[in-house]
Design brief:
The complex is a heterodimer of chains A (283) and B (260).
Chain A: H1 2-5, H2 24-56, H3 68-75, H4 79-110, H5 116-124, H6 131-145, H7 156-177, H8 180-189, H9 194-205, H10 207-223, H11 226-230, H12 236-246, H13 251-282
Helix pairs in contact in A: 2-13, 3-13, 4-7, 4-10, 4-12, 7-10, 8-9, 10-13
Chain B: H1 2-22, H2 41-73, H3 80-95, H4 98-108, H5 126-149, H6 153-161, H7 166-195, H8 198-203, H9 211-220, H10 229-256
Helix pairs in contact in B: 1-10, 2-5, 2-7, 3-5, 5-7, 6-7, 7-10, 9-10
Classes of the chains: A mainly alpha (283), B mainly alpha (260).
């Protein structure tokens, strides 16, 4: 590569080289370190996942392949309804988080800047309160509202709280990147209502941040177990847990887990590509 | 303002209920005697277990995660490897949970392991610690990468121009600069492990080793050391995590001084 052509020279690194102001020998050693590190960590992260995928494809006898664990997803009692509930929960939680946060954050930025520190503190507070603690205090409240709504969908009330810190961070990054004051003043002086300002002027400008907040929220809801288990509501993770208690190492556990994980990974990979294209387009 | 109402009912009120119930006796009067429960030897063993597991997994996770973060940071900032590892870290840091225990059971479970059959799989904290490291390393990469990205090439060049070796660069420049961020991130990992519940529950739910497991037992069964045992344990955890997070915030502020 370019490194070889400039071997033995102390001239500045050629343009194609990595942006590190280091000598050639040192860079080569660094690259060796990087490849070794990536290989070892890659294996550590990959092997358990691989084992899970392999188990999901295991046939009747050890060492054979079959898709039966994947077809069982549809026929295992309770599993399909748990998946439905979890997906619905993800959608509802995303919607509530956005409706709750976006107008409030725009309003704070435009009108009441002084409150923003307290607001940030409140939004990040759930990070310091473990879910298991939250649920101890939530039980009495849930016993009260249970009269109105008895399905597991009621979990969204807490999930919104759990998602607050992640949604807040991405939305706040999106809002900082645009000039909210100028945009809204321009729209207002052209006669737009506040609803128009928010929905048709500001929201389209921070679409990337909103998408980010939605994906993080969905990932969180897909993986939530603690609160659902303790409140005796069956979501995807609780359903899997119950199956694993009834039959250890049931194949359907591994196929469903693999599917859920692939789903989350695809969401985040899409996001990272969208974000990159945006940056390029702007530059 | 709907936001305040919502946060009030579902965040502040539950926390208040926990604290209030922890300092009441069964008759409903204010009474601090329940808090003595925190010094009960049985209860202390859960706290010891939690701390042991969190310490092992956070320190190991932090060191390995920092190495990986450095390897990621020293590559092409727009390259495939970096994107893959960042997206992967985002998923895997959240991956702690029931599924993770299944994956490890499939890989190295004592009777089912695909790679090998680990006799130590059910050891505490060794076996579960290894599983925790699986989500601690990605979290470390996510929180520590900005600090490493903040290391300026000029500092490295300056060291080399003055005749410094790689070792001297790390000993006198790199490590002191990164130390506050590193310790802060370790604290965050510690708090993360402390509040984790799903993974250890799916790993082994016969024996309670940690505080969250005992909280589950005490709010789901009538037999407990006290009627409000769950609340007292929860309060103990809140205080613990709060102290750690304050330390984290202070160290982050210290670290931010150089990383602009």
């Amino acid at each position: 590569m370019a490194a070889i052509t400039s071997l033995g020279e102390s001239a500045p690194a050629p343009q194609t080289a990595r942006p590190r102001g280091m000598q050639i020998g040192r860079r080569r050693r660094l690259n060796l370190f990087r490849y070794v590190t990536f290989t070892i960590f890659g294996l550590f992260f990959f092997l358990p996942l691989f084992a899970m995928v392999r188990f999901s494809l295991e046939g009747k006898q050890a060492g054979t392949f079959s898709l039966s664990a994947w077809t069982q997803i549809g026929s295992t009692p309770g599993l399909v309804s748990a998946i439905e509930i979890t997906l619905e929960l993800a959608v509802i939680t995303c919607a509530v988080v956005l409706v709750l946060l976006v107008p409030t954050m725009i309003w704070i930025r435009l009108r009441v800047q002084w409150i923003s520190r307290i607001f940030e503190f409140l939004c990040l507070l759930p990070l310091t309160i473990p879910a298991i603690v939250l649920v101890v205090g939530l039980q009495p409240i849930y016993n009260k509202i249970e009269h109105y709504n008895v399905s597991a969908l009621q979990l969204f009330w807490v999930y919104v709280i759990l998602a607050l810190p992640y949604a807040y961070r991405s939305l706040s990054a999106g809002l900082t990147a645009i000039d909210v004051t100028t945009l809204s003043e321009a729209a207002r002086s052209l006669g737009a209502s506040w609803a128009t300002v928010i929905l048709r002027v500001i929201v389209p400008n921070m679409w990337q941040a909103i998408l980010n907040a939605m994906l993080l929220t969905s990932a969180l809801v897909l993986g939530e177990f603690t609160i659902a288990e303790i409140l005796n509501d069956v979501n995807l993770q609780v359903a899997l847990f119950n199956i694993s208690r009834a039959t250890a190492n049931a194949g359907v556990l591994f196929s469903t887990s693999t599917a859920a994980l692939l789903f989350a990974f695809a969401l985040l990979l899409i996001l990272s590509y969208v974000g990159r294209r945006r940056r390029r387009g702007r530059a | 303002m709907p936001f305040l109402g919502y946060v009030g009912v579902f965040l502040l009120l539950p926390t208040g209920i926990v604290i209030w119930d922890a300092v009441r006796n069964p008759a409903g009067q204010f009474d601090l005697s329940s808090l003595k429960l925190l010094f009960n030897p049985d209860v202390r063993s859960f706290f010891t277990g939690s701390i042991e597991l969190s310490a092992v997994s956070s320190v190991t996770g932090a060191i390995l995660g920092a190495l990986l973060a450095y390897a990621v940071a020293s590559g092409n900032p727009d390259g495939v490897v970096r994107r893959l590892y960042l997206a992967g870290s985002g998923v895997l840091a959240q991956f702690g949970g029931v599924t993770l225990a299944f994956a490890f059971n499939a890989a190295i479970g004592p009777s089912t392991g695909f790679l090998f059959h680990a006799d130590w799989y059910y050891n505490f904290p060794g076996g579960i610690g290894l599983i925790y490291i699986y989500f601690q390393i990605p979290l470390m990469v996510l929180v520590f990468l900005p600090a490493i990205d903040g290391l300026k090439i000029q500092w490295r060049e300056a060291t080399e121009n003055l005749g410094g070796s790689t070792w001297q660069y790390w000993r006198h420049v790199g490590f002191p600069l990164l130390a506050p961020a590193f310790i802060g991130a370790t604290l965050l990992l510690f708090a993360n492990a402390l509040s984790a519940y799903a993974t250890i529950q799916a790993w082994e739910n016969q024996i309670a080793y940690t505080v969250p497991q005992q909280i589950y037992i005490s709010i789901n069964s009538e037999v407990g050391l006290a009627s409000n045992e769950g609340d007292v344990l929860a309060l103990g955890m809140v205080v613990f995590v709060a102290i750690i997070m304050v330390g984290y915030a202070l160290l982050q502020r210290r670290a931010a001084r150089w990383l602009r």
